[in-house]
UniProtKB/TrEMBL annotation:
Belongs to the KHG/KDPG aldolase family. CDD domains: KDPG_aldolase. PROSITE patterns: ALDOLASE_KDPG_KHG_2. Gene3D superfamilies: Aldolase class I. Pathway: Carbohydrate acid metabolism. It comes from Sphingomonas pokkalii. This is 2-dehydro-3-deoxyphosphogluconate aldolase. The keyword Glycosyltransferase does not apply.
């Protein structure tokens, strides 16, 4: 979460495009890449992106233990889930792989802390009350660190990143356009202050 201010959230339909996309993102300064498990090509995309020197490739939108087992076979370097269940959270926490479970309220954060977790994905960030809501939650959970995702834009990312408990934000805006445009957006995102 401290590697770069933005983690690209990647939905990949064609694994053949995964490696060139990862190369453009890494060249632009974003090394941490979250490949969502939303498409049939996701596992192949993780495998291809891991071939890029300097890339730190993880799996996102992991919603059950079956998917967790699948991505671990591909050596995913971190796991992100949209929510937190006891069964999935326990399995991932016991594995030791870095894990960002999605949280949107105090109960979610408490469940994660019961599992020994202290880093969370605040999701969906904008529709869960935005920065104002996260500031309210961060008070009682002063030890927690966050990566808000969901509705973050290049215009709003600096406001989120200025809040101390936020280590990075997740964003999908970086991945649209040509590879040259992706690299340019990655470079701008990597330069965001925090």
């Amino acid at each position: 979460m401290r590697t770069a201010p933005v983690i690209p959230v990647l939905v990949i339909d064609d694994a053949a495009k995964a490696r060139p996309l990862a190369e453009a993102l890494v060249k632009g300064g974003l090394r941490v890449l979250e490949v969502t498990m939303r498409t049939p090509a996701a596992l192949d995309a993780i495998r291809e992106m891991k071939k890029v020197p300097g890339a730190i490739v993880g799996a996102g939108t992991v919603v059950n233990t079956r998917q967790f087992e699948q991505v671990m076979k591909e050596d995913a370097e971190f796991i992100v889930s949209p929510g937190l269940t006891d069964r999935l959270g326990d399995a991932i926490a016991r594995s030791g792989v870095p894990y960002l479970p999605g949280v949107a309220n105090a109960g979610d954060i408490m469940r994660g802390m019961d599992l020994g977790l202290s880093h969370f994905k605040f999701f969906p960030a904008e529709t869960s009350g935005g920065l104002k809501a996260l500031k309210a939650l961060a008070g009682p959970f002063y030890e927690a660190k966050f990566c808000p995702t969901g509705g973050i834009t290049p215009a709003t990312a600096p406001d989120w990143l200025a809040f101390e408990p936020i280590l990075c934000v997740g964003g999908s805006w970086i991945t649209s356009g040509s590879l040259e445009e992706v690299e340019a957006k990655a470079r701008e995102a990597a330069a965001l202050p925090r």
